[in-house]
Specification:
- Strands 8, 9, 10, 12 and 14 form a five-stranded antiparallel β-sheet that branches.
- The protein is built from 16 helices and 16 strands.
- Strand 3 and strand 4 form a beta hairpin.
- The protein has helices spanning 3-6, 35-53, 86-107, 110-114, 117-134, 137-145, 150-179, 181-189, 196-216, 219-224, 226-234, 246-249, 274-277, 298-309, 322-327, 335-357, and strands at 58-59, 62-63, 65-68, 73-76, 79-81, 241-244, 317-320, 361-367, 374-376, 380-391, 397-404, 408-412, 418-419, 424-434, 442-451, 454-464.
- It has two domains: 1-60 and 108-327, no CATH class; 361-464, Immunoglobulins (Immunoglobulin-like).
- The N and C termini lie far apart (101 Å).
- The chain is of the alpha+beta class.
- Bound molecules: iron/sulfur cluster (2 copies).
Length: 470
């Protein structure tokens, strides 16, 4: 029988957060500590500072990041994107999906444990507050099973009040990304009757966050998150994941000072259960890679500490592939990893090139449909054109239109072609050409748009006019 076959597979019939009778198995994970936990804490501080600070940073009076889906206005690191940039969004979205699939196939669920906002808030904010108020896992369990005495009311009340406050803070920040920090300030400083939609949205978001972090917790990853549910098809035996080295660890057993003569040799796992105690999703990683595992690496820290104490090498639980554990070879860049990485690189390059080549101004010109030409004084003919200019910058932009290679005059009807920041200007102009300059009824012409004297776009169109022999 191999080490793998020794492992009991019955855990696959249930999930760690549900008891046999179908009730919630509330998880009280032991407070983690160790190198990986410290690294995650530092990364989380950086990511949280980024998330809460970003809405306050403005460039030319506009936020650095804005995802206003209501007005279809998006600003990404100072670059404005509107509905007319749909193709870039679509490509970026496809690239993101492919990126996620390929990244997961190679590096597993590292994103879940280290970068996902759900895990960061749950483990690095709400859970830390819980440890601070209620103590470590044993104290929490004891408090939960105790009657509602003064201590329990005080501790639970204080915890939930702080949770609610943080949920409000997260809701306001999320709203700031959607409608901008100025609008959030307006909502906060107005009465609910003045801004009922904003008030309702803010409270709905707060309620959702409070529900998730105070009660729903790890179930969001296990039952709701589509990315988590996809793991079964995205991972294979060569994917990196938090993995228990069953070759080295089995057969597990408690350390005993006296070794019986006929006792079979034991593996490195001393069956201390610490890797299970620290797991926020309530699983035993020694059973193998499981859907519930978010790769938070808490069990790696716990096991490394044990290995140091019993004078064995660290890494009984480590980031490795199943193939790596079976063969003993360290994870290396295989042909598959290289191919996936090249595809990823190409995708990211395409989106980057599109972003770089994206112009600040978009100009389109079209001869007004259904209109022929008009005779004008001084032996001239005119055609009418529609034009629209999209200003994707934060400044006023004045555009000049000129016809290339043909003496012609452009008269913009009803105003000038100055476009306000982040606005679309739609107008009309009349193009006047001397009849003697026209050789045929339908003349191909080029109209160029200039910004500060620099040509930014040339549009091919046509000019209709009566052909006259000289
Ligand atoms: S098994 Fe380990 S890595 Fe996976 S969720 Fe539990 S503690 Fe985190
Ligand atoms: S922490 Fe390590 S030694 Fe302890 S039970 Fe888990 S795998 Fe075995």
């Amino acid at each position: 029988m191999t080490n793998e076959e020794l492992l009991d597979q019955s855990f696959r019939d249930s999930i760690g957060t549900v008891k046999k009778d179908g009730k919630r198995n509330w998880i009280y994970p032991k407070k983690p500590k160790g190198w990986y936990y410290n690294a995650r804490t530092l990364l989380s501080i950086f990511l949280l500072a980024f998330m809460f600070g970003m809405p306050f940073i403005k460039v030319h009076g506009e936020p650095l990041l804005l995802f206003n889906i209501f007005e279809r206005k998006f600003i990404i690191f100072g670059m404005f994107f509107g509905p007319y940039d749909f193709h870039i969004f679509l490509l970026a979205f496809v690239a993101l999906v492919v990126f996620v699939i390929l990244f997961t196939a190679i590096y597993g669920r590292i994103f879940c444990g280290w970068l996902c906002p759900q895990t960061i808030f749950m483990e690095m904010v709400f859970r830390k507050i819980e440890y601070w108020i209620e103590g470590d896992f044993r104290d929490q369990r004891k408090l939960a099973s105790s009657p509602w005495n003064k201590e329990k009311i005080l501790k639970k009340g204080a915890k939930w009040a702080i949770f609610l406050g943080i949920s409000y803070l997260i809701a306001h920040t999320v709203m700031a990304y959607l409608v901008g920090i100025d609008e959030v300030k307006e909502i906060v400083s107005s009465s609910p009757a003045e801004r009922p939609a904003g008030f309702l949205a803010m409270n709905a978001f707060t309620g959702i966050f409070f529900f998730i972090f105070a009660w729903f917790r790890e179930q969001a990853c296990i039952m709701v998150c589509p990315y988590g549910r996809l793991q079964g098809v995205l991972l294979d035996e060569n994917s990196l994941a938090v993995t228990y080295d069953f070759v080295r660890g089995e057969p597990r057993g408690r350390l005993s000072r006296q070794i019986e003569v006929d006792e079979p040799p034991k593996g490195d796992c001393v069956d201390c259960h610490l890797c299970v105690d620290v797991c926020p999703t309530g699983i035993d990683i020694r059973n193998g890679i499981q859907m519930e595992c978010v790769n938070c690496t808490a069990c790696m820290d716990a096991c490394d500490e044990v290995m140091v104490k019993i004078d064995k090498p660290k890494g009984l639980i480590r980031l490795d592939s199943l193939t790596g554990v079976r063969t003993g070879k360290r994870f290396s860049f295989t042909a598959r990893v290289w191919i996936y990485s090249v595809v990823l690189f190409i995708l990211v390059s395409i989106v980057t090139v599109l972003m770089i080549n994206r112009t600040d101004l978009d100009v389109s010109i079209l001869r007004t449909p259904g209109m022929l030409y008009q005779d004008q004084p001084n032996n001239k003919i005119s055609n009418l054109y529609n034009f629209h200019i999209i200003n994707k910058t934060f400044y006023d932009q004045k555009i000049e239109l000129k016809v290339k290679g043909l003496p012609a005059e452009i008269k913009i009807l009803g105003g000038n072609s100055t476009v306000k920041p982040l606005e679309v200007y739609e107008g009309r102009f009349m193009l006047l050409v001397n009849k003697n300059d026209l050789k045929e009824l339908n003349t191909k012409i080029q109209i160029a748009a200039y910004q500060n004297g620099e040509e930014i776009k040339t549009v091919n169109t046509s000019f209709l006019g009566k052909y006259e022999e000289k």
